Amino acid sequence: MNKYILLKLSYISYLITSLGLPCYSQIAGIERRFGSSNSNTFSYEIQSTIGTRTSASVTGNLVAETDAVLNLRTGSKISNKIGDESGNASAVFVATPNGANVDLSGITGENLFMIENGTQFKSKLRMRDDIQSNTPSTGNASSFAVQNTKVTVTKTNSSFINSFQQSF
After folding, report:
1. What is the pLDDT of residue 7?
2. Is the pTM here over 0.70, yes or no?
3. How far apart are the first and last CA of the chain?
């Protein structure tokens, strides 16, 4: 009888495959992936500028005239450097309840502006030609060179965690 059942099962299996009937099966699984990354970024920027500025404010019978001309000689320079004599540089950030401070060492900037002939700064207040009587007059005028050095330091800490899960 065992032989008969085995033969019958073989015949049924042959029929299913020869007739092209689909066979179905199911497998279940779960794939999980986790990852994380951390990054610390430190950057700095030194911006150096030189230029001129004039301003004037008048009322009444006054007229202001301002002029500023700045000529720089060849050889003027701006240089920025990271690293002291030994090549070391550091930035120590200290967070406080009211903000943050940074202590920089080994970062230097040198601005050497050599002023050339023809540089001039003029400011003048004068009375108008058509003076109106009983009019109070006040005024101020100025012209000057402006040199500015600005250091911007940025420190960023970031963390990223990701996870992925797929069921099939």
Report:
1. 57
2. no
3. 42
